[in-house]
Amino acid sequence: MAGVASGNDFQWCFSQVKGAIDEDVAEADIISTVEFNYSGELLATGDKGGRVVIFQHEQESKNRPHLRGEYNVYSTFQSHEPEFDYLKSLEIEEKINKIRWLPQQNAAHFLLSTNDKTIKLWKISERDKRADGYNLKDEDGRLRDPFRISSLRVPVLMPMDLMVEASPRRIFANAHTYHINSISVNSDHETYLSADDLRINLWHLEITDRSFNIVDIKPANMEELTEVITAAECHPHQCNVFVYSSSKGTIRLCDMRAAALCDRHSKFFEEPEDPSSRSFFSEIISSISDVKFSHSGRYMMTRDYLSVKVWDLNMENRPVETYQVHEYLRSKLCSLYENDCIFDKFECCWNGSDSAIMTGSYNNFFRMFDRNTRRDITLEASRESSKPRATLKPRKVSTGGKRKKDEISVDSLDFNKKILHTAWHPKDNVIAVAATNNLYIFQDKIN
Amino acid sequence: MKIHNSRTQRGGIKLHKNLLVSYVLRNARQVYIKEKYAEIYRMQQYEEVMTVCNEIQELNPLDLDAEDAEEERAACCGEDFQRGKEQEPAYYRSCCMEAPSPCDQLSVNINTHCNTTTVLDLDTHVVTTVDNGYIHQDCCCDTFQCAPSAQSSAKKRKMDFSYCTSDFDELQDFTTTRKRLRREDCLYSCQEFTETSNISTLISIFGSGFSGLLSRQADLEQICSKQALAGLGAWTRAIVAF
Question: Which PANTHER family does the UniProt record give (chain B) (predicted)?
Answer without folding.
Answer: IMMEDIATE EARLY RESPONSE GENE (PTHR15895)
